[in-house]
Structure formats: structure tokens, C-alpha cells
Here is the input.
Amino acid sequence: MFNIERWQEIFEAIGKNKLRTALTCISVMSGIFILIILLGIGEGMKNGIKKQFENDAASIVNVWSKSTSIEYKGLNPNRNISLTTDDYEFAKKRYGDHIETKSGFYRKWGGFATYKKESGSYTFIGVMPDMLSLENAKLNSGRFISERDLEKGAKVVCVGIRVAKDLFGDYTIAEGKFIDINKVQFKIIGVYSDAGGEREDANLFIPHNTMTKVYNDPGKIGSMKFTLTPESTFEATTQKANKFLKQYTSYLKKNHNIHPDDLKAVQTHSSLEGARKYIMINVIISLFFWGIGILTLIAGIVGVSNIMLIIVKERTKEIGIRKALGATPKSIVGMILHEAIFITTLSGFIGLFLSLILLEVIGKQIKNEYILNPSVDFNIAVIIVLLLIIAGALAGYIPARHASRIKPIIALRDE
Amino acid sequence: MIEIKNLHKSYQMGSNSLHVLKGIDFKVKEGELVSIMGSSGSGKSTLLNILGILDEGEEGTYHLDGTLIKNLNETIAAQYRNKFLGFIFQSFNLINYKSALDNVSLPLYYQGVNRKERVERSMHYLEKVGLADWSGHLPSELSGGQKQRVAIARALAADPKVLLADEPTGALDTKTSYEVMDLIQQINEEGKTILIVTHEPDIAKMTKRIVDLKDGLIINDTKIEPIKAKANV
Here is the structure.
């Protein structure tokens, strides 16, 4: 019954009760407003977390060693364990099919680099060719360390863009220049930059073999980084990574005479686990936001229902008159429902509109690590609009049924 | 037009039951102008509610224009009220936020008449009660007599078979009462069947038939020659 007559009836009724209608509108409006803002912030947090994970390839597993904590086979605790290139080769051979990218990682803090009068202290790392993709970095100029560099133990370095800017002012001229790192001369073969930000841009990557040679530590690997070939689902990949780490750790313990229960000597980290935790947190946060938003909305809707009940009470006499003049219960229900749906939908749209504007204007200003580009996508907005119409119907239903049951004789009885 | 046989009605008041109508037999032919008189508690309002399909008796039958009125659901009751009956109340019962014209056209709205025709027909009835110039006014801007005339126009708008008036002059002064009665007499002369509940003898004397109700029974039913209301204005 969406005819023009009904609309005229509604506008007349609303026009006569402007204050009451305005108050009702505010409750629904604020409900929708809060819901949208919360969802927007939730989306912003999701984007923020996503950004955090752009640091490295999201599926990296790390293996490194420390000193033992348990005495084993007559060997004292606190014995230092160093992982070797043999351990690395074993992993390559044994799990080659499942490993996508791999690299040793021999790191020294305080790589003191100088070029003419410019100098700076950076992180000095011996790596293998896959490191570029493991770091999720991209080259700005030149090339990264190659297999040949690795074999020859070449004295070449791929520097972060910040290093290049520090030493040369302009990173584009860095390639081909020679710099001293801890008094050893290296040739710059490339400049990279990392989505992860400033700190990640201040590394000096040299071939792994060169690094162990420079520090007179041949055969050692430092730590190891792998990414595994992805499975069809995130869960399966995570499980594969966990299985790989478990098997490989127990091999390493056997190989280095470490007690099987020693948790300290060989350590691992799977960023997949971390990612899974973040995704879980994200889901929980958005559920929480939805929950709060919807509860707020319900409070608004209950307000509408409440006010409609008062309206029905106030209009008891009028409804009685209408019934005496031939209004059917259906037409009374329709009238009240229509009014409730109209009020909730209209005020809901106003709330939606205001909150979207706020997200659009304020959202762009937010420069925070954890919240990025808060927004609400179109589907969600459509869902909310549908939700509103349903909510309006619910809010109107009880008062409408109440109204339809008004007996004309009682309503018309003179007080 | 109206035919009631052995009508009983009682109200449940806590544990006691109050027997209000104790077997009413009553007939009204087309074109009659009948007044129902009685002191308060005589059952006249209950009788009018039953006649107006706002309430139902427990025992006995009620035929309205040949249709048996019994065990109707709310929707059909509403349709019958709309089709057969026009109501005039003591306190006018106009909808206070609607103009005189919109009040008059309300029964037509519920008949599904379109707006243009509604306005035409409502204007016709407003002219008939002499308020064409007041069509855009709200009830609060009208005097008591004018309000009652709007209510009469509304009762006529759907062209019902019977007009039921519950103390139509109860809230009016004598002069205005007689003006309203004059209008009612005119409408009756055009052939409309009208029932008036009243406790004022001078109003009753302006009808063609007086029915006296006492303790739920008809004690007197006489036809009289009506006094012309116009003569007293």
C-alpha cells in the first residue's frame, strides 16, 4: 500500500508532532552513526594490520640458535650453538620441494660505511639471492646479490635507499661506486627499498660467503629464513610450516648434540602463526564492533518502538474514530508500520550520510600506524539499509498490533 | 432496515455479571427518525453500540438491511460500518489535525475512493451542512455547532443506510441544538433512516418516534408528530 494517500496521512501525522519525531530520529541516527563509525575504524585497523605485514613476505619462517639450557651427553649447558651451512644445505636437499625461497642471514650490527667524507653506521648482513623477495623489497636501481657473487665471494653490496641517500645524497648515482664497510672495500651493485619503512631501508646486504670470510667464520650460516610453497588454504600452509619447523628443529638438535627438550638452543618463528593471530584478532575486533554497533542500533530501534507506542496511546481516540468510520485492522497496522519504517529509514539514512561524510573527511587525516584509511564498503552500507528497514518494521510492529486491537467503543467513550 | 429480536447483553464486572439488555425486540423501517430515550444505566448506549456494530449481543439476532450481523471478524465489521452506518457523537470526534474537508472525506478514503472524487463529494456534503466556506479550517477553529455539522457531513459522506447519533446535542446550547436538529430533520426528509439516543425530551419530541428504555427493556414505543426544529430556532 505505497500509495500517495498513505504518504499524505503520514506526513500529516508527522507534521503535527515535529518535536517527537525529531527526538525519535535522533536516537536512530546516532545508532547508525556509531555503527558506521565503528565499522569504519574496524576496517581501518584491518588495513593497518595489512600494512604491517607488508614488511616481509607474510609466510616467512625463521630458524636461529642460542646457547643450550640443558646438559646432554656429558656436555655442559650454556654451550653456544652455531648453525652451519651444512644445516642449510640439508634443509635445501631434504625439503627442497616445499621451500619456495631461502636464505642464510649472517648479521652484524654496526656496519660502518664510508664514502669520501660521508659515513654512517648500518646493519651489515650476509645474505643469499632470495633475500630480496624474503624482505619484500624492490630494487630502485642495479641488481641484487647473485649466485655468482655468492660462489666467488665477491666484495659487492646492495644498499638500502637510506644508506644511498646518506652517503651520496642522490640514490641514483650510488650504483657502481666503491664504499668502505668496516675498512673493507665493496662495490655497490644496487639500491633497494623496503615497504616496511625507514629501519628496513638501512641495511647493507653482501653475499653470505663474503660475510663469513670477512668475519673469519667460515661454514657458519647465522640464521636461516625460508618461505614455503603455499597450500590451497591458509590453514594448510600454516600447518605445513609448523610441521617443517618441528621436523627440522629435531634434526638440528640431533646434529648439534642438543637435548630434545631444550627449547632455548634452537629457536624458530613462523610469521604465519603471527599472521593467523592478527587475523583472529581482526575478526574478533570486527565482531566486537559489529556487536556494539548493532546493540546501539537496537537501543535506537527500541526508542522508536517506545515512541510509536506512546503515539498509539495518544492517538487511541483517533484510531477509534477511524475504526468507527470503517478502517480495517489491516489499514491501521499499515498506517503505524508505514510511519515507523519511514521514520527509521529516513533518520537512518541521515545518520548513514553524516557518518560516511565524517569517515571521508576525518579518515583521510588519520596518520596512525594502526588505523589506515578507515572506510565502509558499499555492500556493508546496503546491508545496513536493509537492516534499517527490517528494524523499522520490527519497531513498528508491536505498536501497530496494539493499535489494531483498540476497540472503538472504548476509544470513543467520553471521559 | 433494522430488525432486532430478543437481544440480550451482559457485562462481566469482576465476579458479578451485569445484565444490561434483557431481551429487546425492535424494528426500524427505512426513512424513520427514531429517538431512544432513557436515564443513564438504562442500556441505551449499549444498544447503540450493538446497532453500530461496535459491540455484539450474546443472545438474539440483529439484521441490518437484511444482513445478519453476528460473529463478524474485525475486517468485515469495519467494512459493514463503512458501508451501512454513519456515526454522530456527542463530542463530535473529529480528528483534530485534519481540516474539515479531510475529516469529511475520511470514510471515503477507507472506501478506496480516489482523492479527486473524495474532495468533490466531501465538498458537496459540506455545502449541504452550510460549511463550504470552512472546508480548510481545523476543528479547533470551529464552534461546537459547526463541529457537529462537520461530523454530520462526515456521517453522510459514505452515503450510509442508517445514521446513528449518540447524544448529538449533548454538548451544545439550546439554540445550536435546535439548528443541528433542524439539519437532522432535513436529512431525514430526504429519506435517510436516523436513530438518535438522547435523554432530552425536547430533542426527542423533534423525532417521529420515541422509544423509552428502562433497565434493559423497552417500556414504551410511540409514534408522534414531530415538532419542527426550525420553528424554535
